[in-house]
Amino acid sequence: MRQALEGSQAIAQAVSRCRPEVVAAYPITPQTHIVENISKLVADGVLDTELVSVESEFSAASVILGAAAAGARAYTASSSQGILLMAEVLFNISGLRIPVVMTCANRAVSAPLSIWNDHADSMAVRDCGWIQLHCLDNQEAVDSTVQAFKIAQDTELPVMVCMDGFVLTHTLEVVDMPEQDLIDRFLPPFKFQRALDPKRPITQGALVSPDFFGEIRHSHHAAMQKSAAVIESVDADWAALTGRRCGGLLTVEGPADAETGVLALGSMCGTLLEAMETLPMDRPVKLIKLRCFRPFPEAALREATAGLRDLIVLDRAVTPGLGGTVGTEVKGTLYGTDPGPRIHTYAVGLGGRDIPLDILPDLVATLDKPVAPFGVFDADLEKLAPEDR
Amino acid sequence: MTDTSNATRLAELRLKHGRPPASPAEPSAPPRDKDLRKSQPRFRGLEAGHRACQGCGEALATRLVMESAGPDVMIANATGCLEVFTTPWPESAWRVPWIHSLFENAAAVAAGMESAMKAKGHRTKVLAFGGDGGTYDIGFQSLSGMLERYHNVLYVCYDNEAYMNTGIQRSSSTPHAASTTTSPSGKARMGKRHLKKDLLSIIAAHHIPYAASASVAYPTDIRRKVRHAMETEGPTFIVIHSPCPLGWGHDGSVTIEVARKAVQCGLFPLVELERGEVCNVMPIRQPQPVSEYLKLQSRFRHLFNDKDPRALEERQHLQALADHNITLFNLRGDQADPMDTAGMDTVRRGGPVH
Ligand SMILES: Cc1ncc(C[n+]2csc(CCOP(=O)(O)OP(=O)(O)O)c2C)c(N)n1
Ligand code: SF4
Fold it and tell me: Which residues in chain B (91-120) have CB-CB distances under 8 A to chain A?
C-alpha cells in the first residue's frame, strides 16, 4: 500500500513485517526514530518480538549475535559512534558467519561532533566482513531491508543496509509498503544450519592456529564474493514479486554513449539523477549508482565503465592521508583496463553539508583541466587559516 | 496491610519477568558404557583432555559446574584461559552447545541466546562464563545490563584473580599486595596497591534472585549452588574462587589446599544472597591466619621478606581485610557444624556429608 511515511517509520514497519524474533538496539541520532517506532509496534501488539533494550551498542550487536547463533531472526540499527562502538562485535559476527541484519543510518563520526549525514561510519567498518548495501531513497531502503533478511539467510552472512541519516531517515516520502502476505511469500521463516542446539551440540568461536587461519579467511572472502550472485538474484526475485528493483550490485543511468561517468552511492544518486534530468549539461553524463559496496562489484564496475573517457567518483567520507575510500577502490579495480577512464576522486557532502543540484555541472566543468588530486570538492578553503589549507 | 500488598506487588513483578510455563525439555541421558569413568552418572559437559595447566582451578570448577548444570544448557564463554584451553580448533572439549564471541560481551551474547529461547518457547538454560577480567573489569557493563534486564541466565565467574590468559596481569579482582606482571613488587611497590573489588556487593545491588560465592575447595557446595541457580528463574550469578598454579605461584598439586585456606582465613568468604540480602554463609570452623594462605604462593613472596618492614605491614593489612569479612558476614561458627568449612570439606573427607 502506498503511504506517506517518514523513512525511519517505513523501516520500522518493514522490519516488523520481516518477523524478527529478537530486536536489540540502543538509541543514537539519526537512528532513534527506527528504534522508537519498533518499540511502539511492540507496545501496540503489532510486532511480537523479544525487544532487548540494551545498555550500549556493544551489547546490541552482541545480543543479536547470540540470538541468531541460537537460531532466531535478529535485527539491530545504529549510526556513527554506535557503529564504531560495535566495531569489534561486527567483525566477530561475520567471522562466525552469523546471519543478522542491521540498518546503518549513516552519520559523520566525531570529532568534530556532528549528528549529520556522511558515510564515515559505514566506511570505517568496510573491512568488517559484512555485506553492505546503500539506498537511494526510502523505497529502496524498505525494499533492501526485506531483501537483506533473505540475503543474510541465504548466504549466512550479516547484512548492513545503509541509508543516509536525516536525508532519508527523517524525510517524509511516499513509499509502497509491501504487505505482510507478500513478505511472507518472499521471506521464509528463519533457518540457520549451525544454530546452537542441545540436541546437536557444536562449538562456535574456537581458537584457530596459524595452520587454519588463512584458509578460514579465504573462505570468508570467497563467501562474500559468492554472495554477489545472491544479492542480484534476490533483487530479481523481489522485482518479479513487486515490480521494483533496488539495483542489484550497481546500475547505470543516463545516455549509453556518454563518455563521462559519475559514480556515487546512497541518496547522492537521487540528487545527481535529478541534476541530469533538469540541468543543461555541456556533454552527456551517465550515473553509476553503486548499491553494493561489499562485496565490491569489480566485474560489474569494469563493464559499467567501459568506453568512458572520464569517471568522477564521489565519496561521502575521507580517509585522511589518502583520499576517498570508494575512489581508491574504483582506481584499484580499474587499474590496467585499457583504455581506462581518467579517474577524478572527490569527497562531498561531509557532516551533513547539502549537495546542491549544480554540483554536477561544477564537477563536469573540472574535466577540461588535468586530473586534480583528491580533495573535498565543496570545501571553502577561505574559511581556514592559511596554514591549514 | 501495606506489607502484604507490597509483598504481593513484588511477587507480581517477579512473575512478570518470568517465562510462561512450558513443559521442560527431556534432557538426553549421557550414554553408558563399560568404562568406569565414562559410566559415572555425572554429566560430562566439559570433557577431559583439554589443554589447561596441571592443577588448574578454573578447569576443575568448570567441570563441576557442568556436571551440575546438565545437558540442557548452552554456553556463552568470554575470552580467557577457559575458552583457549577448551577449544583449539578443530578440537573442542565441550559436549554442550558453546559459543565464544569476545572478551567483554559474554553476558550480552547470553542475553541474546536467552531471548531467542524465549521467542521460540524453549526451556534450555543459558549460561555465561567469564574469568575475573571478563567479569569484574571489561565485561562488567554488559553483565550489569543483563542482570538489570532480568534475563534467565546463570553467569559464572571463574575468579583466578588476574588476567591469566595474557600472562598474569592485574585485574580489579587481584588481591591487595599480590604481585602480577603489571603490579610487580619492587623497591617502590609492594605488588598491587588497590583492593580487590567487592563484586558481590555490586551484584547484590541488582537485587537478582540469587547470587553466591563458591570455591573449588568445596565441590559439594558448588554443585548445590549451581543446582539452585539452575532452578531459579531469572538472572543468577556465582563467582568461584579458582586458584591458578601458574599465576599464583604454587604447585599444581596443592590447588585445593590453597583454595581451602583462602576460605578458612576469611579472605574469600562463601556466601549466598537472595534479592540482594545475605541468606546463607559457610561458617569457618577455625579461622586460619592469613599468612598460612599467603605463604603457599609466590605472588605474595615479597610479604615474607623479614628485612622489609613493609612486608609485615602488608600482611597485617590483608589480615585486617580477612577479619573484616569474618565480622561482616558473621563467619565464625560457634561449634562444629556439618555445613561449616570443615564439615563441607568433602575433598578431604572423601565424600559428601549427610
Ligand atoms: C577487547 C580485548 N582486550 C584485551 C584482550 C586480551 N585478553 C584476552 S584474555 C585476557 C585476560 C583474561 O583474563 P580473565 O578474564 O581473568 O580470564 P583468565 O584468562 O584469567 O581465565 C585479555 C586481557 C581481548 N581479547 N580483548
Ligand atoms: S594459566 Fe592458570 S587459569 Fe590458565 S590454564 Fe593455566 S592454571 Fe588454568
Answer: 91-92, 94-102, 104-105, 108-120
